[in-house]
Amino acid sequence: MKILAFIPARAGSKRIPNKNIKHLNKKPLIVYTIEAAKKSKYINRIVVSTDSEEIANVAKKYGAEIPFLRPKEISQSDSTEMQFFEHALDWFTENEDYEPDLIVLLYPTTPFRKTESIDEAIEEILKHPEADSLRSVKLCSEHPYKMWVIEDGYLKPFVKGKDPNVHTLSYHLLPAVYIQNASIYITRPTTIRNKKSPTGDIIIPFAMDEMESIDINNPIDFKFAEMFLKGTL
Length: 233
Prior knowledge:
This protein is an alpha/beta fold. Helix content is 28%, strand content 21%. The protein is globular and about 60 Å long. The chain starts with a strand and ends with a helix. The relative contact order is 0.17.
């Protein structure tokens, strides 16, 4: 099978300048993801989608392909997965006559995902040919029933339950709720092309632990990751 690891890494991060190539414990952040993909027993191509020559050069140095630079107009803070998937698939069709069987989307901001988890996720979707995609998730640390919105100066429950006092219940009495963790998302080109969606309708869950789910989005996250690697937490 043609299984593509697809790593989106745009320039222009505002909260952490040059985040994707900022050194985490003496190694560019994106390299953790490239190295995990290279060790996979299923992935046979690794492509980084970036609008940055600097990121491209780092990615190439560590073994990823940069067959194209992503256009600036789909490399903004509000650009979507759908946009960069469609751009990549169209480019592959027009320039290489290549279409993968599976696209394994690996964001570089989750450096602690294990190769074993990537392979387990691939095995899981291969067991389910009816599935449109797979999404990695983790248990929510903050339950939606404990969330509020402010309306006219007063707190109102963000999610209403049958029990009006559901927000007072202990966590173990509430239903398990998961949140996507930006670690391992797998989709099929047919899902993107036919359903115009990265996920489609039939989505397999792939639960991961807190450590592999660490997602670096701000300076505090980065500092936490550094401390974790150095064993100083």
